[in-house]
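Cross-posted from the bioinformatics board.
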Amino acid sequence: QVQLVESGGGVVQPGKSLRLSCAASGFIFTTYSIHWVRQAPGKGLEWVAVIWYDGSKKYYADSVKGRFTISRDTSENTVFLQMSSLRAEDTAVYFCVRALTSVDEFWGQGTLVTVSS
Amino acid sequence: DIHLTQSPSSLSASVGDRVTITCRTSESIDIYLNWYQQKPGKAPKLLIYAASNLQSGVSSRFSGSGSGTDFSLTINSLRPEDFATYYCQQSFGDPTFGQGTKVQVK
């Protein structure tokens, strides 16, 4: 069955870096775009980034542009979100999502990132 | 960025009620508007895509309408499992979400 499993979350100090992973299984990884969407505690949803099915295009929210980098490794069926210069306002649950807003959409369970000194 | 404004921010309703949530966008997005349901501690679930299309497996009690800048989500005959937070989202440009509408028990 389709699975997206996020990992890599934790507590990190402001200004530091963290890399999130999204391991995919149960579908043909190279045929779907993958998004990251985050949700601060008690707050709404915020789209973060997307990487196209073939890795050819990447787009970012203005709030993370220049600090976050999305990539994918087809040999591992994994998408990464490299986060640097982290701020308190980056504290959130980070979800990876297959094919956001399509009939094939599928969400992972999320991983919590806490930026705190 | 395209800004989405949902109303109300919260509402209280009873089982069996009909509930309507509206979403207004800061610019016209044709029908590129989607609706999600989220329960505490869970990932959001896509209910409606392209303004009025029911996602597979979603109850027909949910319906969506609208185009341009004004959209709505209606839940007919509210059931206990429908108490949740609902978000609209636009996919015309880089995705953005409304602030959410919490549907709670009256």
